[in-house]
Design brief:
By secondary structure, the chain is mostly helical. 49% of the residues lie in helices and 0% in strands. The chain contains two helices and no strands. The termini are far apart.
Length: 100
Amino acid sequence: MNPNRRVFYFQGKKPPFYALPLALITVVLVVGVLAVFGLVIGIAVAALIIFFSVMRLASSLGKKKVRVRERETENSGTTIILEEGDYEVIEKDKESQSAD
C-alpha cells in the first residue's frame, strides 16, 4: 500500500470532465424509458378502445331495429305505435292456464 495517500476534492470552480456527458446520457436514458412506457400504454389503450368498439358493433348487429312513430295525443304525450313485425304474440296453453 502507498503510505503517501492524497485525496483530491472538487473545489467547485469547474465541473469534472465527466459530469456533462454523464448528465446528458442520464437524461437521454430517462426520456427513452418514459417514451417506451408511453408507447406501450398508448398501444394498450388503443387496443382496448378497438376491442370495445368491435364488441359494441357486434352486439348491435343481431338486434331487431324498431321504428317508432310519435304522434301527439290529447294529453300532449307521445304514443308509440308498433307495427306487426315489431312484436310477437305468445299464447298460453289451456292446461297451463288452469294450473295458475
